[in-house]
Structures are given as structure tokens and as C-alpha cells.
Amino acid sequence: MALAEIGGEAREAVPALATACKDKDVDVRGAAVFALGEIGEPSEAAVSALTGAIKDENADVRAAAAVALGRLQDAEQ
């Protein structure tokens, strides 16, 4: 959660967080998805990871991914 609290200054973490969105641990995936939304970096890696997370087996991860994608869309405007 610390990266999420930093926000946009944590952009360097986006590739690692994108990878973590595919982790086998649901808590890791959820935290990564949340952090990507809070960082708000609408990079290709972030959007791709969050788009994949929309199809996650866990409903909470799917919901967090939808919220995060909305935040990235807002950041682009």
C-alpha cells in the first residue's frame, strides 16, 4: 500500500506492479491493482495489466481493476 500512497511519484514501480497483477496470491494481485490505480500512470503496461485483471477469478480484484482503469482514464484527461 505504500506505493499507492506515494501516487504518481511511484511510476518506476509500474512494470513490477503489472507483473504482480498476475501473481498466484489474490492479496498480491489486489494490492497491485489498487496501487496501479492510485499511481495513476496510464502507461501501456498499467492499462494492459488492469485489463487482464478485469478477468481475474476473484470478484474483488475485478472490481478494483475496474476502478483503477477509471482512475487512469481520468488521469489522461
Topology of helices and strands:
Layout: H1 2-6, H2 14-20, H3 26-39, H4 44-53, H5 59-76
Helix pairs in contact: 2-3, 2-4, 3-5, 4-5
Task: Give the radius of gyration.
Answer: 11 Å
| Class based on secondary structure composition and strand pairing | mainly alpha
CATH class: Mainly Alpha
In angstroms, what separates the terminal alpha carbons?
A: 25 Å
Overall mean pLDDT stands at 88
Shape: globular
Residue share in helices?
over 70%
Q: How many strand units?
A: 0
> Could you state the CATH homologous superfamily?
Leucine-rich Repeat Variant
Briefly note the CATH topology name.
Answer: Leucine-rich Repeat Variant
Fraction of residues in β-strands: under 5%
What count of domains describes the coordinates? 1
Task: Enumerate the spans where pLDDT stays under 50 for 5 or more consecutive residues.
Answer: none
Tell me which CATH architecture applies here: Alpha Horseshoe
Q: Biggest sheet: strands, sense, closure?
A: none
SSE pattern, N- to C-terminal: HHHHH
Written account of the structure:
This protein is an all-alpha fold and 77 residues long. It has a single domain (2-76), classed as Alpha Horseshoe (Leucine-rich Repeat Variant), CATH 1.25.10. The protein is 70% helix and 0% strand. The chain has five helices and no strands. It has helices at residues 2-6, 14-20, 26-39, 44-53, 59-76. Helix 2 (14-20) runs antiparallel to helix 3 (26-39) and helix 2 runs parallel beside helix 4. The N and C termini lie far apart (25 Å). The mean pLDDT is 88.
